[in-house]
Design brief:
The protein has 14 helices and 20 strands. It is α+β, with helices and mostly antiparallel strands. Strands 3, 5, 6, 16, 17, 18 and 19 form a seven-stranded antiparallel sheet that branches. Strands 7, 8, 9, 10, 11 and 12 form a six-stranded mixed sheet that branches. The protein has a three-stranded antiparallel sheet with strand order 13-15-14, sandwiched between helices. The longest helix has 22 residues. 34% of the residues lie in helices and 23% in strands. Strand 9 and strand 10 form a beta hairpin.
Length: 502
């Protein structure tokens, strides 16, 4: 399973490009399109102001200023999504939470799955060293784990629009804050266009409330009324609204809880462990550590940041995620879980196993053995049918199309290949719509779009017991159908919400 970003704030998911020659089917939009230009210009102007006034915003990467915001890119109308598949994604989230939790607590499985990757990928290797260190130190560390996960899906045209999992994010699973505002935006736009009868098909989104509720439940379990929640953040935060909405919601739910923000570098300079391994920063005891940074190499510019991560893992604070939750979300582990007869090791209910197997697409190891060679040859011969994925997060790292063949041939005899996995291409349905971006035209063009659904989950537990396990909300991101990547702020992606159809 994989983790993606946007605490990893601006590049999020690694999307699959849709090639017209692959004949993805088309879904009808929720409103007859195109709109009359006069009506379109007016409703776009209103929608931009609605987004700005309700905090569906980000800081500009081009003209960055802490004193100003611009609206986050969004799709003007909610995108059509099969109701049955949406409900399936919602219902399966607690099963996936349980699966990740059990995988994270299986040292032998994690070690075996990541064995080849940690030898050739320095970043994953460094994470694994921290895991080995805190595991060997035993009882001093916190046994409770908090997971705020997000499982991402595309509807797959080749399978009657059944959802297929792209990845599951176990670190910095973001946009739970901003995405809760988008259904309201779409309900407003539908009403302005005279389609108030359709509001019931845009589902309520409680992601922010649920995610923050999970953090507060972990804070209570820590059992120190004077303790704080720490957000580990980037040096520069563009996705500030999403993060701040989490802080504001924590205060709303429990006004006595303080949230502090620190970078890994700042933690390296000021954090220490107390007599009982408490994590102490500026004389404040930290109950919960929520990572919105720390998922990619650039966020560890020196050994000091790695030392800060190790200090956090050694502490009594409840980590979100813990180092083993982090590792359980790697692509290599996702590929290992898709192998035959593996899920039964972690899930004892045949119905749960069947539900998870149904959402998996083809995943293949690229180890330097007979199976890896066969998978590489398969992709070299038919590169458009596969996506090549390295153990990197934050978007912009995957390989598509003819480059799949080129990259694999360049790694034929190299151990570097073992750090990658191969995934079958998912072909999502296409639909027409309007994408609204800062600085865009007042009358946007009607374009072809595809959507990716993310479902948020919360889990709290230790090696033997799960105390909390629930699905808490969703997000929808939509991109141009011919774009490889779909980052909301950095690419061609935009925030969206589903319009459910039967």
């Amino acid at each position: 399973m994989c983790h993606q970003s946007c605490g990893k704030s601006v590049t999020e998911a690694s999307w699959y490009p849709v090639l017209r020659i692959m004949s993805a089917n088309e879904l009808d939009p929720c409103v007859k399109l195109p709109l009359d230009n006069r009506i379109l210009e007016g409703v776009v102007d209103k929608a931009k102001d609605w987004a700005l006034m309700h905090g569906a915003c980000m800081r500009s990467k081009v003209n960055f200023s802490k004193d100003s915001l611009q609206f986050a890119p969004f799709v003007l109308l909610p995108s059509t999504f099969p109701r049955k598949e949406f409900n399936k994604a919602v219902s399966i989230q607690p099963i996936l939470n349980e699966l990740v939790h059990k995988v994270a607590h299986d040292y032998e499985f994690l070690s075996k799955s990541l064995e080849s990757t940690i030898r050739v990928d320095e970043f994953t290797g460094n994470l694994f060293k921290i895991y080995e260190t805190v595991r060997s130190e035993g009882v001093a560390q916190q046994k409770l784990n908090l997971g705020l996960f997000r499982s991402d899906y595309l509807a797959h045209s080749a399978a009657s629009n059944n959802i297929k999992q792209v990845e599951i994010n176990t670190i910095a699973s973001s946009f739970g804050g901003i995405c809760t505002h988008i259904p309201g935006l779409h309900r407003y736009v539908l009403q302005e266009l005279g389609h108030g009868d359709k509001l019931k098909n845009v589902p309520k989104n409680t992601a922010l409330e649920g995610l923050c509720g999970g953090m507060l439940e972990a804070w209570k379990l820590y059992d120190d009324p004077q303790s704080v929640i720490l957000f580990v953040v980037e040096d520069v935060t563009y996705n500030i609204c999403d993060q701040r909405f989490h802080e504001f919601e924590i205060r709303r739910q429990n006004p006595s809880v303080i949230v502090i923000r620190r970078t890994l570098t700042e933690i390296a300079n000021s954090a220490k462990l107390g007599n009982n391994k408490e994590l102490i920063i500026d004389d404040l005891t930290v109950a919960v550590v929520y990572f919105r940074s720390g998922y990619e190499p650039a966020q560890y510019p020196s050994d000091r940041e790695w030392s800060a991560r190790l200090l956090i893992e050694r502490s009594l604070a409840i980590k979100c995620p813990s180092i083993h939750y982090h590792l359980a979300g790697t692509k290599k582990v996702q590929q290992a879980l898709a192998a035959p007869n593996i899920l039964g090791k972690f899930l004892d209910d045949p119905a749960k196993i069947e539900a998870v197997q149904e959402i998996f697409t083809g995943l293949y190891s690229l180890d330097l053995d007979e199976h890896g060679n066969k998978a590489a040859e398969m992709a070299i011969m038919n590169p458009d049918s596969y996506v090549l994925k390295p153990q990197r997060e934050g978007g912009g790292n995957n390989v598509y199309g003819e480059k799949v063949s080129e990259v694999l041939q360049s790694m034929t005899d190299s151990s570097e290949r073992t750090a990658w996995i191969l995934m079958e291409r998912i072909i999502p349905p296409i639909q027409k719509g309007y994408m609204i971006r800062p600085g865009g035209p007042s009358i946007p063009k009607l374009v072809d779009l595809v959507s990716e659904l993310g479902i948020f989950g919360v889990i709290i537990g230790n090696a033997t017991t799960i105390f909390t396990n629930s699905q808490v909300g969703y997000m929808l991101r939509t991109k141009l159908s011919d774009a490889d990547e779909g980052g909301v702020a950095a690419g061609s992606g935009a925030l969206d919400s589903p319009f459910l159809i039967d």
